[in-house]
Amino acid sequence: MCGYQGWFSAQGDGAGKGWFHWGRGGEFGPEKCTVEMWPDMTECSEAERFPTGFKHSDGSPAQVFSSYRKETVVRHFKWMEDYGIDGAFVQRFVGSISNYPIELNFTQTVLNHCREGANKYGRAYAIMYDLSGQSADVDERLIADWKRLVDRSHITRDKSDKAYLHHNGKPVVAVWGVGFNDNRNYNLEDCERIVEFLKDDPEYGGNTVMLGVPSWWRELKRDAVSDSRLHKILLKADIISPWAVGRFGPDGVKRHYEEVIVPDIAWCKEKKKEFLPVVFPGFSWSNLKDGAEFDQIPRQGGKFLWSQFAHAKKAGAKMVYQAMFDEVDEATAIFKCTNHPPVSNKNRFLTYEGMPSDHYLKIIGKASQMIRGEILYTEKMPDLAP
After folding, report:
1. Which stretches in the chain have pLDDT values below 50?
2. What is the DSSP string of 243-264?
3. Alpha carbon of 66 to those of 157, 184, 208: distances in Å?
């Protein structure tokens, strides 16, 4: 399962948000750029193409897509089918759904696109609530939104919707951002109430609850709060998924899995919880964060990502969370990106180093087969030829 941000809007797409998550302050150009990679627009129709303030070397305007356009999002789910990726956790930011009407309209429209794409191409999708940056009433906002989704969109209850992800016979709802120690405005009591509601509410509960937590949740150190109440909450949930992006580089994969992930899996097994490790292809955010190192965690042509899948399989993982499908902001995207981004004296863009734009989709398709036991385990990235 991939994380799917679906948060990109463009000037003129009809959403009324301007350039959101492409640039700053509703603008997008060399002085207002927040993305590190450029999408491959080859398959997009004219209606999906939005010219930016960037230029290619031949002087033509560089174009990007908008997640507000159904054709684009549905195609992304087709790519998942084409390359053997099972589906996506659709990110739903609690702050966005609380700001009427533009933000909620955008978020709901993208979810509807994902729902259509997943059903059309036989993929799975599930809601993943992200609590990042939220206030102390995050529990009330999330609960109100889930009730709205069930009552109005019939999420998980629409018999014609065959795609919503179920686990052990129950709909999966993920909540990301539980137990981090970066001075968030909400607390563990808020998170506990959310879990209890999604699990036990007589009308809206009955869900399999997955929690996105810090890497060092088990030891309650480093990126995690030093508070044993976190474990109390995790024992009420069903699936634990520690965030790994940026926590190690190519030289640290083996150590992280041996010292952190293997004991995590043992803890979960003892407590009868399931474990969902997070893998990522690399990391860079020099355009998003001024002064940040470019290509901070190199991809190594996919070897870094494959190494994580291999160690996850070796550790006994039965399922994997791929961060992220479309995240070009922090350069964790695995969908089709171009090797020919626009030219700029102000910005630098990562490419796939001359490899085909579907290189990482192919890697994840193969890795998924390995996790499922359909191909033999291998520490070395296999040949990706068809």
Report:
1. none
2. --TTS--GGGHHHHIIIIIHHH
3. 29, 30, 31
* 2-372 CATH fold: TIM Barrel (3.20.20)
* pLDDT value at residue 230: 98
- CA nearest neighbour of 15 among 125, 110, 111: 110
* pLDDT for res 386: 67
CA gap 7, 245 in Å, rounded: 19
**Segment 143-167, tens digit of pLDDT:** 999 999 999 999 999 999 999 999 9
User: Which residue has tokens 């083996």?
Assistant: 254
Q: Pick from 181, 329, 170: which is nearest to 243 by CA?
A: 181
Q: Cα(222)–Cα(117) distance, rounded to whole angstroms?
A: 39
Return d(Cα 359, Cα 357) in angstroms, integer.
Answer: 6
Q: How far apart are CA 141 and CA 128, in angstroms?
A: 14
Helix (H, G, I), strand (E, B) or coil at 180: strand
Question: One-letter amino acid identity for 79?
Answer: W
CB contact at 8 A, 230 and 178? yes
Helix (H) or strand (E) holding 307: helix 303-315
Rg (CA), the chain: 20
> CB of 362 within 8 A of CB of 79?
no
Amino acid at 135: S
Which residue's entry shows tokens 């700001």? Answer: 99
- What is the spatial distance between Cα 314 and Cα 301, in angstroms, rounded to a whole number? 22
* Digit-coded pLDDT (tens) for 82-116: 999 999 999 999 988 877 789 999 999 999 999 99
How far apart, in whole angstroms, are the C-alpha atoms of residue 37 and residue 335? 11
Angle between helices 188-200 and 229-236 (to 10 degrees): 10
d(CA 73, CA 335): 12
